[in-house]
Write a structure and sequence with these properties.
The protein is an alpha/beta fold. The protein has 14 helices and ten strands. Helix content is 44%, strand content 14%. Strands 1, 2, 3, 4, 5, 6, 7 and 8 form an eight-stranded parallel β-sheet that branches. Strands 9-10 form a two-stranded antiparallel ribbon. A hairpin with a 3-residue loop joins strand 9 and strand 10.
């Protein structure tokens, strides 16, 4: 699919054209990754963050947010619980927390691999190459590092102080170290144009990503971008942060990268609690990440307002998601659910 075709799909609001896009994406999903929806248990182990991203509620320096780091015993209990639920993967996520010593994460990963059959995904921000290597050698299987946008100027605006090109470099390192590599973008960032989204989609294909996360831009009220968005009207050509626009990008990502794992993100469920995940699963997605973070911490992982499932227990979230998936006529995936590369077998 070329730039012109992608741009046409992104700009169209014609119901018949969109129905065709949904059918194409769902058919590609069924052909390349099947009907199984793989469940990744999301565990938010710390809300400390040294970054100052202009949209995120965990940003360093934010006042009024109680910070936490889960203890090893708490994390182990959650891991055992999600393994008992039958999930194939645990996702250890945090802000970019300098208080999480690399050795602590290594020991935790090694324990998970020794005591469970779970795949381990890390989403712990940018790290030195030596640390990424250490975690890989400890047994980590996957790493998620969202790029948010491939446009350098826009990225510099929303991530002030971030070294130029650092995320691109990190993603290359992750591939070289043998991780399954995940990244993703936000749709509707102030200043984001349709041309920028087209370049993001082409970049997904060039990078041959194993997992692609796509969600709407939802700024936290205590951030600069929230205040700026309230003061300034959208610029001409601004991409809207709507559910339908996110689903267009999900569908196009499936067509561009048919073998990749695509999650129906929590952010989509946050803007449409009734059927946000179901819509994404019908438009190309094949992964859901139920939250298994203890409730006392879940409410403190306050990255954006209205986050879905904050008040639910892990048990309630588990039962709800299974029910929703089965209602779609889809099956629950078994095992780690890694990306299947047709030319070279299972990654």
């Amino acid at each position: 699919m070329n730039r012109h075709e992608l741009l046409e799909w992104l700009r169209t609001d014609d119901p018949r054209s969109l129905q065709r896009l949904w059918r194409l994406a769902d058919a590609a999903r069924k052909k390349h990754v099947g009907d199984a929806v793989h469940l990744r248990g999301l565990l938010e182990i710390s809300n400390y963050c040294s970054r100052a991203c202009w949209y995120c509620g965990l940003r360093g320096g934010r006042r009024g947010l109680k910070r936490y780091r889960m203890t090893r015993a708490e994390i182990e209990a959650c891991v055992r619980q999600l393994a008992a639920f039958g999930y194939g993967t645990v996702v250890l996520q945090s802000g970019e927390d300098p208080g999480l010593a690399p050795e602590r994460i290594s020991r935790l990963v090694a324990w998970i691999k020794a005591h469970t059959a779970l795949a381990v995904t890390l989403s712990l921000g940018e790290q030195p190459r030596a640390v990424l290597r250490q975690w890989r050698e400890a047994g980590a299987d996957r790493y998620l590092l969202r790029i948010e946008t491939t446009n350098r100027r826009l990225l510099a605006r929303i991530h002030p102080g971030e070294p130029h090109g650092s995320r691109m470099t990190q993603l290359r390192w992750l591939r070289q170290l043998g991780y399954e590599v995940g990244s993703g973008i936000m749709v509707g960032i102030p200043g984001q144009t349709y041309d920028m989204l087209v370049k993001d989609l082409l970049w997904f294909k060039t990078m041959d990503l194993d997992m692609i996360g796509i969600g709407p831009f939802i700024p936290h009220p205590d951030t600069p971008l929230f205040a700026l968005r309230r003061k300034k009207p959208p610029a001409p050509g601004q991409v809207p942060a709507t559910e339908i626009m996110v689903n267009k990008v999900v569908a196009l990502a499936r067509l561009m990268c048919p073998e990749a794992n695509l999650p129906a993100t929590t952010a989509l469920a946050s803007i449409n609690a009734v059927s946000g995940r179901e819509q994404a699963l019908s438009h190309g997605a094949n992964v859901v990440m139920p939250n298994v973070t203890p409730q006392q911490y879940r409410v403190l992982y306050d990255i954006y307002p209205g986050k879905a499932c904050v008040s639910e227990t892990a048990e309630v979230c588990h039962a709800c998601i299974r029910r929703r998936i089965e209602k779609l006529g889809r099956t629950i995936g078994s095992g780690p659910g890694g990306r299947v590369k047709r030319k070279s077998g299972v990654r």
